[in-house]
């Protein structure tokens, strides 16, 4: 392969980086980030950026499939960037960018659309849910949402994709599209897999005991990273409890278990142990527990919220981050598009 030698030799540091596996995930800029996002996703991204070659991005194109009104988009994109950085995402370690800054993704989306079948797209449960919720806006972008997501992943030839259960089917489709492409045009893509930092993923339930915390619904039962100290304390005061256990060592109902989970994440171990013992002796006073948890939670959230707010107000810094991220992402994306075009014979 004499003619195919690289033009330059990567430095040892670059070589090390190139050997790391590629991790990629996207965050839709719809609604406000909450504790479930923090413990289920963001905190893991922060750990992953140390050991992997990470690409994290704000999926603004995806948000158009359900949110055609773009008035609030700019501030939502800024907020999501600021909140992730405030949580510890480091734009010098990971490539952190906005999807629409990388036009190569749209090009790959176009090619993959030719390999995606209408029938399989119509069967996707998330599509059917959105049709049911919004029957007046069943647009082609909504139908091809999984294709765009596949393009997001394959554009960097990522192999590890940290996503929740609700996204696993989309990921399976990304694998199918990649396989079809490889089969038709030659081996270009590695097959991406779901990836979670470890199995001890914490589940955060909503404070009223009804399902998960939500980016947009159920706001009094969800703790957002942008909530004030007072609001956090108020939400915890209102969290669902009951009359308390009547037999020692009794199993906790879900909503009580959830309060203990939250305490284990933000309170001193001594505090958790005390209330745990009180529960087991049937002496727990939920009012005291929730007051303590409210204070500890506010202390946990405050620095993240304040830092995120400061970043949101610093448009020079935000712009610098977005430009820097776009540059890194486009470099990798351009490499893939070149290989894709060559494989397809679109290189006249
Ligand atoms: N669909 C994902 C969600 O709703 C967001 C997303 C878009 C994504 N593109 C992605 C996640 C690529 C992982 C990889 O949460």
Report on the structure:
By secondary structure, the protein is mostly helical. 55% of the residues lie in helices and 6% in strands. It has a three-stranded parallel beta sheet. A two-stranded parallel ribbon has the order 4-5. Helix 2 links the parallel strand 1 and strand 2. The longest helix is centred in the C-terminal third of the chain and has 30 residues. The protein is globular, with a radius of gyration of 23 Å. The two termini are 22 Å apart. The mean pLDDT is 94. The site of tryptophan has 12 residues, from strand 1 and helix 9.
In summary, what is this structure?
With 348 residues, the protein is mainly α. It is built from 15 helices and five strands.
Helix % is: 55-70%
Number of strands: 5
Kindly report how far apart the N and C termini lie: 22 Å
Name the average pLDDT.
94
Radius of gyration using CA atoms only: 23 Å
Beta-strand residue percentage: 5-15%
> What small molecules are bound in this structure?
tryptophan
* Order of strands in the sheet with most strands: 1-2-3
Low-confidence stretches: none
What is the chain-wise order of helices and strands?
HEHEHHEHHHHHEHEHHHHH
Helical/strand content category: mainly alpha
The largest pleated sheet is described as: 3 strands, parallel
The tally of helices reads 15
Inertia-based shape: globular
Provide key terms for this protein:
348 residues, 3-stranded parallel sheet, two-stranded parallel ribbon, 5 strands, 55% helix
């Amino acid at each position: 392969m004499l003619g195919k030698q690289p033009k330059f030799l990567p430095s040892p540091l670059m070589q090390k980086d190139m050997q790391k596996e590629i991790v990629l995930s996207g965050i839709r800029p719809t609604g406000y980030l909450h504790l479930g996002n923090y413990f289920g996703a963001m905190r893991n991204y922060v750990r992953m950026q140390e050991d992997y070659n990470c690409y994290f991005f704000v999926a603004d194109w995806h948000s158009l499939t359900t949110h055609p009104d773009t008035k609030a988009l700019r501030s939502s994109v800024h907020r999501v960037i600021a909140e992730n950085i405030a949580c510890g995402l480091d734009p010098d370690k990971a490539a952190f960018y906005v999807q629409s800054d990388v036009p190569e993704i749209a090009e790959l989306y176009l090619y993959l659309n030719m390999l995606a079948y209408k029938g399989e797209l119509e069967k996707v449960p998330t599509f059917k849910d959105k049709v049911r919720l919004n029957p007046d806006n069943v647009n082609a972008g909504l139908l091809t949402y999984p294709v765009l997501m596949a393009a997001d992943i394959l554009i960097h030839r990522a192999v590890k994709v940290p996503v929740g259960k609700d996204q696993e089917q989309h990921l399976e489709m990304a694998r199918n599209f990649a396989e079809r492409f490889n089969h038709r045009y030659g081996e270009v893509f590695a097959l991406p897999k779901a990836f979670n930092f470890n199995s001890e993923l914490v589940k955060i339930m909503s404070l009223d005991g009804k399902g998960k915390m939500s980016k947009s619904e159920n706001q009094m039962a969800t703790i957002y990273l942008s909530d004030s100290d007072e609001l956090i304390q108020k939400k915890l005061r209102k969290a669902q409890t009951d009359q308390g256990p009547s037999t020692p060592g009794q199993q906790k109902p879900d909503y009580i278990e959830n309060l203990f989970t939250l305490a284990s994440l933000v309170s001193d171990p001594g505090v958790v142990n005390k209330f745990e013992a009180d529960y087991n002796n049937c002496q727990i006073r939920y009012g005291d527990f929730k007051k303590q948890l409210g204070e500890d939670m506010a202390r946990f959230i405050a620095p993240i919220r304040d830092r995120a707010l400061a970043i949101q107000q610093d448009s020079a810094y935000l712009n610098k981050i977005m430009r820097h991220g776009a540059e890194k992402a486009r470099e990798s994306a351009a490499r893939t598009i070149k290989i894709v075009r060559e494989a397809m014979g679109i290189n006249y």
